[in-house]
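pasting input
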Amino acid sequence: MISFSPSEEQQMIVTMVKQFANDEMRKIYMECDESGEIPARVIDTAWQLGLVSTSIPEEYRGLGGEHSAITGALIAEELAWGDLSMAMHILCPALVVYPILEMGTEEQKKKYLPAFCDERYKTATAALIEPRFGFDPYSLSTTARPDGNGYVLNGQKCYVPLAADADLLLVYAAENGSSQGFIVEKGTKGLEIGEREKNMGIKALATYELSLKDCRIPKENRLGGSKGCDFGRIMNCSGVALSAMAVGVARAAFEYSRDYAKERVAFGEPIAARQSIAFMLAEMAIEIDATRLMAWEAAWKLDRKEDATKEASALKLYADDMAVMVTDRAVQILGGHGYIRDHPVELWLRNGRGFATFDGMATV
Amino acid sequence: MIDFEPTPEQKEAIKVAHQLAEELLRPVSRYYDEHEHENPQEIIDKLWEKRFEGSLFLGLDMTAALRAEEACWGDVGIFLCFPTPGLGGAAIFATGTQEQLQRFLGTYNEGEPKWGAMAMTEAHCGSDTSAISATAVRDGDEWVLNGEKIFVTAGKRSMENPGGVVVIWATVDKSAGRAGMKSFVVQAGTPGAKVEKMEKKLGIRASDTVTIVLDNCRIPYENILGSPEVRKIDKTTTAGFKKAMATFDATRPMVAAQALGVGRASLDFVKEALEKEGIEIRYGLPRHKLSALERDVMDMEANYKAAKLLTLRAFSMMDQSLPNSLEASMAKAKAGLAVTKITQKAVEIMGPLGYSRKYLLEKWMRDAKINDIFEGTGQINMLIVARRILDYSREQLK
């Protein structure tokens, strides 16, 4: 039956994450954006909520909870409402955990998953995006060449979150033209992590360029073994996660500019009492809701193990545009004040602008 | 639990309605567009025969909305001629007593086809419904109605076929403002209620849009919907008006559902035409790799989907008897605008094929536009959304 009500369990999770976002993330996010650092304590606290580890089956030392893309979308929205950099940092290990959980071989699950069930945050990440014009995840320049008992990886990656600290990296590379995932452990010869990147937004999230120079990994490190992975599904999961995050960022900007518009008086009345401002806010609210529902629908398809390519790609385009529209208007509603870093709306515009380029940087 | 799977009954309803749209409506769609004001009698007869098979689109729930979308995919103009209690029925459902429901709609399915309509708009006021000047004066056991109502959808059918009803909005006390606004049921054939002028329109030409003149039209006292009370002491008491607006919480998402049908008709046409030409829409590619055409089609699809999900959400809340005023207006505002854009884009994409009356794209573009106007213009719905999200009264946000 068509329903828009999260389950009781999902509502509990949302309440918990909302509280964390409000009490922890929102206290420090502007400082983090300035300093470029997120306190480890906050990340550990978030990790202890079990947002990622809960869905790891008991046989791999997890709690054996259900792994649901809808729940993932709900979590992603709330965390991103708190702060996008922190949300991406907190959920970064999922970039390795979920693909292994869904598509990994039994050996890969046994070997890698238990490490993510500890109290302490374990850093792992994925490398997909490449620093070139015309980047297309379905036709990667990074290559994986079978060679004897393993693969040899070559290429350049960028926007790799937390690469310098990651114990595990899931590197996507073209193998005979098809995108596949390869698990690269920290310290593997030929894996060179570059300087930390400087970006317009998500400034608190440490991202890196990295290069793979004849980086040799064992054959069993190919995600999914001989079967490989369903790369399309990985991209669709990413599209849903990023769209849900776009909703979270947009909602933050909407709420802030709405409240501001009710307080700011011009010509004797709050600016929200003018249709030019009120209609902007109304459209923002409508588009935020619409995008959320579309993200849920695509996630629902993923949970049913159906092909969600059509839904996820239309959603992603829509969500990217929505995030820019909403965050830009939030700045506009605050006028000059919106441009000043005393208010967070400019931060949300910088973060919102990024969604169109964040392919593969989050997943559900 | 979040779920997007229609129930088996809904799937069946969609299937039946789609088949009806394809077999019954599409073949005559162009004819009734070109022959404005001609009555699609054979369609009405067939629908009336089938009225017990669940194809009559009675009701105001999600299932009815899913049916309406399919029917409007066939033809929205003819859909508006379907023999149903329509918006008048919706008002009676929303605000009438059991006795009234029984009296006005109890025998709806019996005998000959019947219609229902709602008359709100007047020449000098559309969106500003509180400014209406039609009057209702009590005279013993009767109300005496006077005034002129325009743009009454299906007004002619409702007034001229026995058993029909028109819900008329009139004021019982002009000085009381919105609190004096009441609705009254005028039954077909009542002396003093006359249908004048049938409008010539941009689209939905099969549907009759008429002026109803009330000249000392007498109706039983019991035909008032809701309370006759006007609490003058407190001018801000607008219970009567609010009840009228509650009707819109049900009918706005229904209009959104109708809009979706027209939007999807255009979208389906474009996608089929592209497929025939061997042009594939490459989903999953990053945006910079997409052609402008692919971007357009995906944007149309996403807009359709956005409007559809907002509409279903409004119905889901209504079906659970949850207040849905905000969600209803969000759905209507989005759907009206989305299908206006989708159908216009479809004409643009198909070029001469889109503009030619040989195909239906140009008709759908004309038909779609009404959805951004009637049952609350896009702007009025935006205003409602804005007031809700800002928690502003109508005095605070004009």
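fyi Residues 239-276 of chain B form the longest helix (38 residues).
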